[in-house]
Amino acid sequence: MSFIISLGIGALRNSRGNLFKTSKVALQAFKPQRQTIRSVKTSTVDWKPIKSGTTDLAKKEHQVKHAKVRYFFLSLMIAMPVVSFILGCWQVQRLDWKSKLIARTENSLTLPPLEELPADLDPNVIPEYEYRKIKIRGHFDYEQEMFLGPRKRPDGELGYLVVCPFVRSNGGKPILVERGWISKEKIVPSTRSSGYLSHLALPKGEIEIVAMFRVMPPRSYLQYSHDEGSRLFFIPDVAAMAAQSGALPIYCQAVYDMSDHPEYRRNNEKLNASEKGGQGGSGWFFSKGKSTSTPAENMSSLHDDTDSTLEYLQSEFVNEGVPIGTVPKVGFKNNHLQYLVTWFALSFFSAGLLIYSLAKGRSSSADKVIAAKRTHMKKME
Question: Is 50 exceeded by the pLDDT of residue 291?
Fold first, then answer.
């Protein structure tokens, strides 16, 4: 009986304990919980990520892989100061040569003209007399008149240079004379033979001209060759001009002269009178058609045929087809001083860059790569 009573008391105690625990859990469920409030908001993005940079080891390995390229550029750096220094020394020699050439030609322009040329003039000696003025007597062979161009004047007007063989009075073969520039509208001789300046455009008979010797560069393989028999030349091919006209390969340029020549007018008047008298002309260049007085002839009669000081305007020469000669001045350009300064400066700076590169020790080797690997391993320990 006592045993039964003890079992009942134990069961009652267990039930009370379970009931107490259940009530305690229920009370905790109804108990208000404490909330945590953040006072500072932080971003979830990492604005400073870790970046992997190029290490010394990677640089050394890159240098070893590109050793050939590095040696190639090193060779260029070594060759540059040497080659530029040699070119600078060469420009010093060129400067001395060009200065002497300009001085010699300027001196030739100041000398009085040569008045007598030998009949058997040697073309090989002409380079020694370039830019030397000459005064020769004879007449132009208009049947062999040639044109060089086209050429533009400074104002943009298009025209051609007239080249005509000049038959010397003292004998010998003719020489080529560049008379000057004419507009493209005055190429046909008939447009130049009827104006009041026809005695200057197409002087007839024996006259005296002043010209200067010139040496023209030979035609290169890249330039157009001349069409045989054509009067038009694109470049001053002296050899082809001489062969076509039967003249010596000697090229002269008529000196710029805007003054009148009364003796030219008298010669033209005499020859024109003989042509009108029925003797006929010497070629199609001087054919004038009907013999009637023109306004140009009336204007020509107003000028005094003894006034040699009269000068005309360039516009008059252009309108009447009178060739405008060449101004006697040296046409050489001397830029060798700028060239030698450029080459020596390039040699100096390239030599400094080479010394700087060698002093910095940019050339790598296997030992440097191994040393860099050891240093890198020590940093990782």
Answer: no
